[in-house]
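I am going through a labmate's work and have reached the protein record below. What it holds is a sequence and that sequence's fold in token form. Please read both lines and tell me whether the tokens look consistent with the sequence. Do not assume that whoever made the record got everything right. Thanks in advance; the entry in question is below.
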Amino acid sequence: MNCGTPLAEVKSANTTVSVPEQPLRPVFPAQFLELTQLYADLLLLQVLGYEQPILIKGSTQVTLGRFSPGEAAPSIDLTPYNAGLLGVSRQHAEITRPADEYLIADLGSTNGTWLNEVKLTPHKHIPIRNGDLVRLGQLAFYVYFRTPEEKPAVAVEETIQLKAETPFKLTARTLETVLSPYLMALAGIQAICDQMLERGKTAEVAITSIALREEKVAIQLSGAADATHLAHKHFTAWRSDNSARVDYLTQKAVNAENGATSSPVPAAVAEAPNGKTGQFQKELREAELKLALEMLRDLAPNRGDESLKANAEKLLAYLHVLALSPLQLEEEAP
């Protein structure tokens, strides 16, 4: 060993250095997306901090790691990218293309493999989306490739039932002020779902039929499967748990619209002092944000926290409409 040689350089030749886990923020350069459109079998890796990307053409299986004398070399040697000091193992991960999609798997590495800041289970193959962020230890890169042309999704028809809190008449006014905002909110939630799942062409949310049955409105929809599924799974119970706040704020809104100075409010908040409205609004928004994050994690569990938080903020306005609506979604039939 030469005197003065950094210890980290000596260790990285034979062992993998343990490094702390730190989140990264994704960026998607347009020029790399354009490059992948030229070749159907081109995989492009852009390592953070380096201008020139790694181009892999025509391969259905590549291993990522760093070279070590006397051992099998990986397909892609990341040593020039400071792989040893960044915690990359000699055989760290592999990317395969069994058909029309790319899959990534950790190969039992020391510091783990992360996809959009979600740690992968070793030896389990997970699909990669175009523009995903991959991290091997602390060496991170974005993955780009050409996605096949997508046809518009086939819209699945389903019937939802909305129950009115009071006798409900299907009039021109209730269509405009009650039913339309509810359905527009479902369509907005579905649009966010489509964006997060990176769908290409999607079918527009359409209403096939509307029928009034006693105090229930039965609506046949197409193109809103994700929104209605998430609403059934998460929103119905949430609405029940937050009924006191919602009913109080709803009644306050009705009073303001009618010019009433006093009106009965739910028993749970009947004794609320002055200024409680602002507190309830704050609490309801926090509860709505928590619900939005829960729904989006269920929808896209591999998305990073930054993406989830950004889309949760977009979801809030639609959830608020559903929360304050006099129409409530009935439990999904088993």
About this structure: Residues 157-329 form one domain.
